[in-house]
Amino acid sequence: MQISEKYNPQETEQKWYKYWLENKYFHSEPNEKPPYTIVIPPPNVTGILHMGHMLNNTIQDILVRRARMQGFNACWVPGTDHASIATEAKVVAKLKSEGINKSDLTREEFLKHAWEWTDKYGGTILEQLKKLGCSCDWDRTSFTMEPKLSSQVIKAFVDLYNKGLIYRGYRMVNWDPEAKTNISDEEVIFKEQNGKLYFLKYKIEGTEEFLSVATTRPETIFGDTAVCINPNDERYAHLKGKNVIVPIVNRAIPIIEDEYVDIEFGTGALKITPAHDLNDYEIGKKHNLPMIDSLDDDANLNEHGLHYAGKNRFDVRKQIAKELEENNLLLKAEDYANKVGTSERTGAVIEPKVSVQWFLKMSEIGKPALDVVMDDEVKFYPEKFKNTYKHWMENIRDWNISRQLWWGQQIPAYYYGEGENDFVVAENIEEALEIAKEKSQISNLQISNLRQDGDALDTWFSSWLWPMSVFDGLNNPDNKDINYYYPTADLVTGPDIIFFWVARMIMAGLEYRKEIPFKNVYFTGIVRDRLGRKMSKSLGNSPDPLDLIERYGADAVRVGIMMSSAAGNDLKFDSEQIDEEGNVLTEKQIKQRMEEGKDAVYTSPLCDLGRNFGTKIWNAFRLINMWKHEEKPANSTEIQTIEWFENQLNKSIAEINDQFDKFRISDALNLIQKLIKDDFCGWYLEAVKPNFGEGISKEVYTKTIELFEELMKLLHPFMPFLTEELWQTIAERKTEDALMIAQQKKSETFDETVIRNFETASEVISGVRNYRQTKGISPKENVEVYTNAAEFANESVIKKLANISEIHFATKTDKPSFTFLVGSTEISIPLSENLDLGEEKEKTEEELKYLKGFLISVDKKLSNEKFVANAKPEVVEVERKKQKDAQDKIAILEEKLKSL
């Protein structure tokens, strides 16, 4: 069989991905095998592949490919999320660039533009995942706004409303003035910002006396309806029952009392603005205060803002401060740093706003979802995220599920009158009409009399049904797909959406299937650069995954990112930007290139390691492929080596399976790398390799190929393209014999003694090689060895790989020698006649001096009664082992000095 000198990833990846697709290896239908199901965390439909996606989807692909190779009917369902806020913002921006305002369009006209945008850009990220090698069942690709999934969202809303779990309420919400919608508490990101703390004078009505009130938001004074003091604050006891005058506004408002006010904090007097602060809203309700909303949906002052009407809230802040100062109503302004709520989607500063919204009661459906995680029915990896989940679930608030958007499932509430309760909820307008007739007792109501609620549902209200809706589980709760594939096996996601998505999917699954939606949740870390910064395009520190794949090949990138990915911890993906000549760029140069619009080119040491690993495997097969086969029996070296590697393989498979069970996937990769690089390439091939000019036994060659194939099966989930290429090169395969559907070897019993004996042999060989290297002895010059051991289990292997002419067992040499220990076994090599004995004596004395000093420090530690009594037993045991090793080595070196 012919194999090229170098592996070409670009050519190979395209070839095998096409082959896999053509043969429908990724597609799954219910059958007699046990199912293994993963649903993709649906990326935004307008998104493109970034480093976080690459990590998440590489892990999913590893899990699903491994499951196929372990006899499961693996199904990985891909799809995208309609991302209402992000997508609507992109469509609005596009329309604005064409001179069209959203407000000039009807809902239907706008949605037409939104669908055009989605159809044009919606498949980008899924196509990019194919470059990574993702083995998704593309025939099952879903979209949260497609009719089948949307109908299930509407069905769930109607059902929950009829159960009394969804209600319409007048509440304070988080208003995003840029997206023109409210957002949930979980979508608010608090960022520290530097601002001013303004101390305002609120004059006591009819006097020149004033109360000092501090605020960071003077623009909200137009909505003030009270000033609050603590009833136990003696400083203000004389002001109880009086009014103050709001600065600039000149409106009298009452001084009220509430123990909510901290006497020690600030001035001890709070301005109460119920329409623009959550805490003020609660106090306002408690004291029946009026509510004055002084900001419009763009966060500009409205008519309540008087002469500031129509102006931006932040511009007004400075102007108000100036006016207050001019009118002697500003005591002082101090620099002040505080945390400000911002929108996760747009970055805009959030404005608290009171409005009518739709809510889902969380306490009732939240309790079972907490229990299944605490009881480990749903297992979290790493387990530390259970505490995060528990804290949120125990402090859960009702979910605000309505958004003031057009892109999304429109809320199925239909109004037939102007009264607060003049609405009905139904899956469609025809059903709504019948319910409305019955509720209103108006028999001649027409469809034209009904008006559907203008809000859309929160995107998460569709994605919380995702593990069920992709299998049509709400429309057809007894269909073969949902019954077979649900519950899914594993979920791979980021901890940042543990509340948005993970918790809510568990709630929905228990509500509608009475089953958990998945058995395990693996939380990935955040991909950071070598300085620890989160990778982002705005910082210019994030490689484009597709550029890395083009440069290194998908396999190398997959291995690179997995090598840096410890379970649940943030990972540093070391990469550097280079210019066209290959020079590494400084931060200043990177920034300059960004400003100039020049493309970034990245190199990555991790991807280099991945590529080098692939090259080593490729070259290992090329070496095997070059051997001549001869009809001759296997020799003792080959028999011993094969026996050892078969046992080592079985042991490694058990360890790899254990790491996968713990979702320590990078550790599983490390074990596979060691098995291939060190054990197979480093020891096995060296041991069975025929001597120069000779051939290898056909029997040994066949066994070597079989072992290599088993290694390719283990590695395939991590490096699918390279392994398939080698698999198909080894022999001509039928379509049913492709590697990606081959079955991995199951773990079998192994003989620990055989493995331990070979480890002893490898240490002896390494010791002899070390002697040659340190003494400048040629590897071709054979040596004699003396040892106190009675025998070596792998004598022929040791002789071949260490180039030893004779091993003298249970014999001590009286010649000057190089001596080392393997456990308690002493190995001595008579020094070559070419060595300078004086120099050797000097080196030995130096080594002896160091060891004696080291032994004194260890003896001192072990003679310290406090250390021995208080240290962990295993720590003390380590020190005792150091002591014994040092004593043994000193004894050997002293003997060596005598002989010298």
Automatic annotation (TrEMBL):
Per the UniProt record, the source organism is Chryseobacterium caseinilyticum
According to the record's subunit comment, the protein's assembly and interactions are: Monomer.
The gene name reads valS
Cellular location of this protein? Cytoplasm
Q: Does the keyword Aminoacyl-tRNA synthetase apply?
A: yes
Say which family it is in: Belongs to the class-I aminoacyl-tRNA synthetase family. ValS type 1 subfamily.
* One Pfam family linked to the record: Val_tRNA-synt_C
Q: Which HAMAP family match?
A: Val_tRNA_synth_type1
Output the superkingdom of the source species.
Bacteria
According to the UniProt entry, the note on domains is:
ValRS has two distinct active sites: one for aminoacylation and one for editing. The misactivated threonine is translocated from the active site to the editing site.
Q: What is this protein called?
A: Valine--tRNA ligase
Q: Name one GO molecular function term.
A: valine-tRNA ligase activity
Could you tell me which residue ranges the Methionyl/Valyl/Leucyl/Isoleucyl-tRNA synthetase anticodon-binding domain spans? 644-786
Main localization, broad class: cytoplasm
Q: Which PANTHER family match?
A: VALINE--TRNA LIGASE (PTHR11946:SF109), VALYL-TRNA SYNTHETASES (PTHR11946)
Which residue ranges does the record assign to the Aminoacyl-tRNA synthetase class Ia domain? Answer: 15-573
